[in-house]
Amino acid sequence: MQDSRKFLHPDALKRISRLDLRAKHVVEGFLSGMHRSRYFGQSVEFLQHREYVPGDDLRHVDWQVWARQDRLYVKQFEEDTNMRVTLIVDISESMSYGNGPFNKFDYAATIAASLGYLALKHQDAVGCITFDRKVRDRIQSRTRIDHFQKITQSLAAQSLIEKTAIDPIIREIAQTLPRNGMVIVISDLFSEPIETIRGLKTLRQKGHEVLLFQVIDDDELEFPFTGATRFEGMESDIRLTCNPQALRDGYLHEFHSFLNEMRKGSAKNNLDYQLVKTSDPLDAALAKFLTRRMSRNRKR
Fold it and tell me: Left (φ > 0), alpha (ψ -120 to 50) or beta: where does 274 sit?
């Protein structure tokens, strides 16, 4: 996907202010690049026709059927069989941090909207839940492509002002979802890893596939600060003025230990985990979703 990666980078996407347009730009660029990638060589099995709806890819229209019946139908392949996708997006205050083109929430919302749009294009049912210490908004699952606007409007309207409580919120959500769907959690996961994993395990126990995107700003990974700096907790009252160099080694050790705990806990509990930086192009998230989707359908 060499030609499309530049269009999926946050620096380029920042110029597109509207979330719905940004997500469509990401997905169309990704699908365009995919034709030159390893995904293009995947063998797919034709299943059936279904009637065309606005937003369907015209490349899948069966023009021979149109010539005979004067009605538009698209070919539905094995990858196009429906599933239920639930997007769960963290809108807590820590997600407002950012020192690049996007803060963490901007990046997370773009991932969520892009995955939602990609799933809707495949006729999947997509819902979206936003949370901090409470569930703040819930968009019920629908398959129509115009449902995409409700999802992006919900994400764009959120205020990032509260603390987070991942474990109880995820367990609460797990009790409300029908079984055996795909749940995509997008968060910085700034909570105790043991508690976070405990909450996410309830989704697995309900039969869901879980894709977990941990969104981290580059500053948090690299701690590049120099000179006297004042640090303020975004979800606490802690304030500290110090020389960052005196803290850097200890901070990096603790932060990477935290990330390792999340990786190990996810692997142990069959959670499909991926760390993403806010400076990363967004094609990796879409490729991961598509890979899981194809794997799921092959197991049917």
Answer: beta
